[in-house]
Design goal:
This protein has 295 residues and is of the alpha/beta class. The protein is built from 12 helices and 8 strands.
């Protein structure tokens, strides 16, 4: 099995449950890990944006990583987030991530707004320092800057330790141009749940999904149908999920998916500031959507 084979399908971008007094809720985290594994996801993604890692100290992060490794009873492949806007710091951290994990997910640097040359040099530095393969992560809605297709293509051809990208720009055209010119073994992974079926039809390797926290079976079934070229059947699931998926982002993520998971009895609905729970009105809306999906 190649490293790319490990990530063919659905990755759940795990949330981090918190208690009412703002501590890590390990009982809820165990329920969540079991929920997504039993739901059929193909790999786990820890400390993506959805996991709120920027609000956690290093001791908490280590405890969460150790716990998930222990509870990953089916030994699914695991990706760990290692990103930021201080290149030397991220390179140092990447060099120290241990081999219990299969790859790191490293976001385009935010706030600094590097140009395209700066983005390339950032990934060159991080990938050369990392003991594990690197998956880049382009999410301009959060970082404030877009890594253009030509930069991703340059990375794919020139940085051998960068094995793929989670592409979460809203542009299907950009996704298409990336797929057109990257090597066949460079993974282009969908990072936008609302357009995942179009991405899969363009050759996405799979998806890293927020929705899969709450609806792992439906989401994983949809991706497997896409991989099997059964797009008529996949589209039915996509259309069934789309309103629920969009509801998870209307008042910010992971606020939406944490509301959904709390409604489902998997976690308590707690976030760390500056994030806050969804409004009561939106909570009621998500509840109705879940009830419809579970009929």
């Amino acid at each position: 099995m190649t490293i790319q084979d490990k990530f063919h399908g659905t990755g759940a971008a795990l949330i981090t449950p918190f208690t009412a007094d703002n501590k890590i809720d390990f009982k809820s985290l165990e329920r969540l890990v079991n929920h997504v594994i039993n739901g059929g996801v193909d790999f786990l993604v820890v400390f993506g944006t959805t996991g709120e890692p920027v609000t956690m100290d290093e001791g908490e992060k280590k405890a969460v990583l150790d716990f998930i490794c222990e509870k990953n009873t089916k030994k699914l492949p695991m990706i760990v987030g290692c990103g930021g806007n201080n290149t030397s710091e991220i390179a140092d951290k990447a060099a120290k991530i241990d081999t219990r994990f299969d790859a790191i997910l490293s976001v385009v640097p935010y706030y600094n707004k590097p140009n395209q040359r700066g983005m390339f040099q950032h990934y060159k530095t991080v990938s050369e320092a990392s003991a594990l393969p690197v998956i880049a992560y382009n999410v301009p809605g959060r970082t404030g800057c877009n890594m253009e297709a030509n930069t991703t293509i340059k990375i794919a051809h020139e940085l051998p330790n960068v094995i793929g990208i989670k592409e979460a720009s809203p542009s299907v055209e950009q996704f298409t141009y990336i797929k057109k010119d990257v090597p066949d073994d460079f993974m282009v992974i969908s990072g936008d749940d609302s357009i995942v079926v179009p991405h899969m039809s363009l050759g996405a390797w799979g998806a890293i999904s927020v929705t899969a926290n709450a609806m792992p079976k439906l989401y994983s079934d949809m991706i497997r149908l896409c991989i099997a070229n059964k797009y008529d059947e996949a589209l039915k699931i996509h259309l069934k999920l789309i309103e629920f998926t969009d509801s998870l982002f209307t008042e910010g993520s992971p606020a939406g998916v944490k509301a959904a998971l709390s409604i489902m009895g998997i976690i308590d609905n707690n976030l760390r500031l500056p994030l806050v729970p969804v409004t009561d009105k939106h909570h009621e809306y998500i509840t109705r959507l879940i009830n419809d999906l579970q009929k």
